[in-house]
Amino acid sequence: MHNLKYNKKLCIPSLDALKDMSKNNIPPTLVERIILEGEDFKDRKMGKGEIGRSIKKGKFEIFVKLVPSYSYSLDEEVWVIKHIGKRRLKK
Questions:
Q1: Nearest Cα to 63, choosing from 90, 49, 42, 45?
Q2: SS3 string of 25-43?
Q3: pTM for this structure?
Q4: 54 Cβ partners below 8 Å, 6+ apart?
Q5: What is the mean pLDDT of residues 9-35?
Q6: How many domains are contained in the chain?
Q7: pLDDT of 3 strictly over 90
Q8: What is the per-residue burial (b if ≥16 Cβ within 10 Å, else e) of 42-51?
Q9: Is 2 or 38 the better-scoring residue by pLDDT?
Q10: C-alpha distances out from residue 89 to 40, 55, 57, Å
Q11: Which domain holds residue 33?
Q12: Over the stretch 37-66, which tens digit does the pLDDT of each residue have?
């Protein structure tokens, strides 16, 4: 996930997102694919300015939530990968 950009902004995973990846057994390459090739995703828990991307894989929808932020160390606007999850698709 190094140098992954969405809408010309760098995507930086939060500690929670890294834990989500481990818990749900989601590899970094899949997270990249979801962000770059996925569909828009929205749920009622998302805050203002937050965006989501998702893909359907088997019986599940895997989603990534991105929050706009600013990195003072990089001196640029970035996306923080806030949450990565999966949910069973309805039949």
A1: 42
A2: CCCHHHHHHHHHHCEEECC
A3: 0.90
A4: 34, 38, 39, 40, 41, 61, 62, 63, 64
A5: 96
A6: 1
A7: no
A8: eeeebeeebb
A9: 38
A10: 16, 11, 10
A11: 5-88
A12: 999 999 888 888 999 999 999 999 999 999
